[in-house]
Amino acid sequence: MATKAQFLLFVSAYELESQVIDAIKSELSIPIYAIGPAGSFLSVSNAQLEEIIGGVRDSGVSYMWIARGDGISRFKHENDENALVIPWRDQLRVLCHGSIGAFWSHCGWNSTKEGAFSGVPMLIFPIFWDQVPNSKMIVEDWKMGKRVRTEEGNLVTREEIAKLIKCFMDRESEEGKEMRQRALEVKKISRQAIEEEGFAQIDIDSFINDITKSH
């Protein structure tokens, strides 16, 4: 299918996945561009969501929870002084704020890239599709995150979640220090990608130039 295309766009940054992109370029003769992140449509089960809410609350950390639609109603009976529950916020803007110590994410591609750009360690809970390989990249390649769920389909209890969050937010642990350092390194790489001479900007400009010439 790709061999019949005129161009191939990746919603990624070359600096973060150079080996993969170079390998694909070596196999295909068409122009390939990594233009940076391009929505959320998957969600956990109601039972798992209740465990996550309970676990985050019981961990004792201060947190912001983005609850879309009628999701806010789940918090009506919660009396948690550490919680800020809101319907929407600019996720990247929030993540770049200095008070943010961690990011719980399903590892959708946009969230993955925004986590990388902000340099915030990630607690990851992939559900399906690209979220699974994205989670592998965050944990094993970038080494800036930790998985919440280790086995597909198993319900993670609030006790497990609370314990994990407490450990994850421990700023004195060696694992945490290494993870935060790696997150800062990934942040630097991500921001270099969108600078004037970064690969993302170069590829966007090249793509626009190519499609303009082709028409």
TrEMBL record:
- GO molecular-function annotation terms? UDP-glycosyltransferase activity
Q: Which keywords accompany this UniProt record?
A: Transferase
**InterPro entries noted in UniProt:** UDP_glucos_trans
Keyword Kinase belongs to the record = no
Write down the superkingdom of origin: Eukaryota
Name the Pfam families on file: UDPGT
Quote the CDD domains the UniProt record gives: GT1_Gtf-like
Entry-linked PANTHER family: UDP-GLUCURONOSYL_UDP-GLUCOSYLTRANSFERASE, UDP-GLYCOSYLTRANSFERASE 72B1
Protein name per its UniProtKB record: Uncharacterized protein
